[in-house]
Amino acid sequence: MNKMETHSAKLSFQNSIRWLVPLAAILAFGAWMYLAPEGALGKLDAIGYAVCHRIDARSFQIDGRQLPLCARCTGEFYSAALTLIVLGIVSRKRSQFPPRGILAVLFLFFLAFGFDGVNSYVYLLKQTAPAGSFVDKIPALYTPNSVLRLFTGSGMGIALAAVLYPVINQTLWQTAEEKPALTWKILGGLVTAIVIINGLILTENPLALYPIAYLSALGTLALLIIVFSMVWVMLMKTDNTFTSLRQLTLPLLSGFTLALLLVLSIDLMRLHFTGTWSGFPGLNG
Fold this sequence. Notes:
Layout: H1 3-35, H2 40-48, E1 61-62, E2 65-66, H3 71-90, E3 94-96, H4 100-128, H5 146-172, E4 177-180, H6 184-202, H7 206-235, H8 249-274
Parallel strand pairs: 3-4
Antiparallel strand pairs: 1-2
Helix pairs in contact: 1-8, 2-7, 3-5, 3-6, 3-7, 4-5, 5-6, 7-8
């Protein structure tokens, strides 16, 4: 095959992709709308169901109805979404990782998330395991609670987004700004805002919980879309070629399709084995 034929085949493939990706996105969205539980919160439940255990006792409630994500995942994904939004507005195309001091703080957030998560898991095992089993010998350092879950999850969300954002800019833009995306000023503002929001969440007032239910679940989907979009960009070998947001339509549609397919696959597999859209049966601690 000569160069002209190769170029023609490449153009034909690219044109096919431009038609197939939007069609696949529509089909994936239609399948998700059809299979997910009824109602707006039901659709959000289907997103949370793919990434979270959704144990009722470990979730915040709106009039007796649990949020799409548990307390820890709610904190993690709403704060990650909020951090990405803030960095997108303030930092734009900045592509450098935070300075060492901020990275140390983010690492502490990660350690707190992991420590509280492990302790919470051990506590759950001790509650559900048969009496006299080896699990009884594993010490649970303290009784887990939703306050710690929410705050450690929120810290992890900041850390996750703070690392992901410069990676996005390094992958996409033809010309990126060689500055740290996260500064002490931005971090301080984010931490202050999230502490205030967490305080509102802990009141369990529906006026606070409804927006958080949407932000956390849609933030989960957005993170999946972003990751899959970057994977698509690298597979298509178009990294570092973009100059405007408008050019990202096809990668974002591809990421949207792949994210929904992943969510649907996990949902259907989990629903098959558990028979419920709620938390895993038998895990109520």
